[in-house]
Amino acid sequence: MNTRRHSTSWPKLALLTAGAVVFLFPFAYMLSQSLSKQTTGDLGSVIPTPGSSGTQNYEAVNGAVSLGTSLVNSGVFTAGVLLCTLVIGVLAGYGLARLHFRGRSTLFGALLLVQTVPFQLLMLPLYVLVVRDYGLGDSYLGMILPFAVNSTAVFLFRQFFLQLPAELFEAARIDGAGELRILWRVALPMARPALLTGTLIAFIGPWNEFLWPFLVTKDAEMQPLAVSLAGFMSNLRGTVENPTGAVMAGACVLAVPAVVLFLLFQRHFTQTNIDSATKG
């Protein structure tokens, strides 16, 4: 029986290995090109040779766009969106799941409707409101404000709070606890899978966001790294010796925080946890 099990696992292992190689190859190619002194575009160059690698591309792109300042801008932008998404998502999700008020179903239906509207359709009115009416161009608040409410996160937290036993909340109310205390002391300690899933959803979007920060920031000192790299590719690539390698180096720097976040919380992002965070 063990022999049959091992024989049937080999095809699955080979298929998974092939899928992993296909998935990881672009990352390996990006990293190898960022360290290459000369970019040839040859797929075989993914394997470095002695004397062909160095950190000169990182130094070149850092001299052109100031990676440190751009990373700080990306971090502030992402942290602001992450904080607003989790706070508003938890409060709104709890209210829609555990509070009974008139219009709750209509409000939840409107939430689902908002999810179907592409952000690009709202970009022009948002630009007029944020930049012209509120005067928030070239500011962190102007970048954060349109992403402060994440309807996907509200939906995720609502579904999680719905699956918690109603007896827990009734017992806390009988003991005289208010709704905010019930949320803080009863619901949130059990909402760890939903919080981790919401963190991942809220982090990836703004960290990689390009179009909205590009519209609202004209000052290079306020631009996130994705916008700075786009400006480098358009205007400054001729100022460095290996422009493709410099762009690859910038892309590696942009990818590092997301990879670190995944590695730190990898064991929490299991299928079971995500299922429990989204099951209604």
Explained architecture:
This protein is mainly alpha-helical and 280 residues long. It has 14 helices and no strands. Helix 7 packs antiparallel against helix 10 and helix 12 packs antiparallel against helix 13. The longest helix is centred in the N-terminal third of the chain and has 34 residues. It is globular. The chain starts with a helix and ends with a helix.
Beginning-to-end CA distance, first to last residue:
40 Å
* Average pLDDT: 83
What is the N-to-C order of secondary-structure elements (H for helix, E for strand)?
HHHHHHHHHHHHHH
Beta-strand content estimate: under 5%
Helix fraction? over 70%
Spatial shape: globular
- Number of H- or I-type helical stretches: 14
The computed structural class is mainly alpha
| Radius of gyration based on Cα positions | 24 Å
Strand count = 0
Unreliable stretches: 271-280
The main pleated sheet reads as: none
Summarize the structure.
With 280 residues, the chain is mainly alpha-helical.
Fold topology:
Layout: H1 2-35, H2 56-65, H3 67-98, H4 104-115, H5 119-133, H6 140-144, H7 151-162, H8 166-174, H9 179-187, H10 192-208, H11 211-216, H12 225-236, H13 243-264, H14 271-278
Helix pairs in contact: 1-13, 2-3, 2-13, 3-7, 3-10, 4-7, 7-10, 8-9, 10-13, 10-14, 12-13
